[in-house]
Amino acid sequence: MRAHRVGPPADTPVLQGLRGIVRPELEDVAGEIIAEIRAAIPEYRGSFDGPYGIWIREGVRHAITLFIDRLGEPSTVTAGRPDSAAITAPAGPVADPAGAAPSSTSTMPVLNDGHEVHRRIGRQELREGRSLDTLQSAYRIGVRVAWRRIMRVGRQSGFSSAVMSQLADRMLALMDELSSVALDGYREAKAETSDPAFAARRRLIRLLVGRRAAPRGELAELAALARWPLPDTATGIALRGPVRIVAPLGDEVLADLSGTAPCLLVAGTVTEERVRALREAVSCGPQRVGVGVGAAVEPVAAADSVRLARRALALVDDGLVPQGEVVWSERVLPELLLRTGDAVTAQLRRRLFAPLEGMTERRRARTIQTLSAWLDAQGSVHAVAERLGLHPQTVRYRVRRMEEAFGERLHDPRARFELEAAVRSLPDSELAPDSSDDDNADAESCRSGER
């Protein structure tokens, strides 16, 4: 594996500023890259005219877009080829570029940040009978043509030698990354033709996480071919982001990294340490892969575990779980329950928070934050004060305002349950503590009045 050091974080704003200069030039260079590959490598001349040519053009377009978008992102990009053991995990179902390719007027599916198209290119290269050397030559030509254009832009725009060096490093790193993904696809296709277990593992995970419930006898037969004996339980793991196998996953792991919702299926239960290792094993590029962990279930219910993991991962989008964290479904079951019917929880919030409608937005937010802490602390003023970082007297003032709004509902068991459900359905950003001075001033005024 190779890491290209682009420069210190201080250079990030400089590179971000180059996007507007570089983008129009590189977006225009795709046709030039295709023409040069066609001229330099005779084996590709016929490929560009058929359905497979659409995928090649999409691969070029994606590489250019990704290079531009990554300008100004974290400065180290790690790319490289996985260990040979890594390719024993299945790639999962992929569309065959040699078959029904999308029309030139349709929207091309860009899967897993577009990396999937490079995996498919690698698979098709084997079917076309070309060697890995030919495939890598095509990637090198693409980099050479793109770099030639950047050199011209750099001279015209007065880029410094340091900036040009960083651009070169980033371009080489991206070529390593994407050509390695294509290599994965090539090896996967080769393994399918030579290793019956590889193909069986691919079919097995499709069957386990698919919509159709498979008979246990059929699963056991396929599991034996896949050398994945059916365990008592299995755990689904949902992934999000640019994924590819960069380290061995282990024989107990089935993987489907294709499509828009890649996933893993692990025999047995998983520990936090195991999940961290799997996350590193499927991460490529500067961004960490998002991970949701489902429940340990019988293999016949593996699809439920994967669906639960995907729903848990979706809580990140709703702001209910911080970005970058592994989301364990069993730790967020109340949130998942509340998110099964967004319209229902929205109506619940509207009804329960109606007494707050006359408040300013800021006052309303503070009241809800206090309510959340008060429910968690079971009414303890000192516990609420510690949670919100406030003086206990300020909390007493807030609680009085809260009691004025909600009245006896705060002491009715059913109403308290509804209030807690409504609060838990809110994003974390709406529950962040607010210890602003004006609140303390109100409390001081209240204390003065009491005296």
From TrEMBL:
It holds the Pfam family HTH_30. Residues 368-424 form the PucR C-terminal helix-turn-helix domain. Residues 426-451 are annotated as: Disordered. InterPro entries: CdaR-like_regulators, PucR-like_N, PucR_C-HTH_dom, PucR_C-HTH_sf. Residues 17-78, 111-209 form the PucR-like N-terminal domain. This is PucR-like helix-turn-helix protein. The lineage of its organism: Bacteria, Bacillati, Actinomycetota, Actinomycetes, Pseudonocardiales.
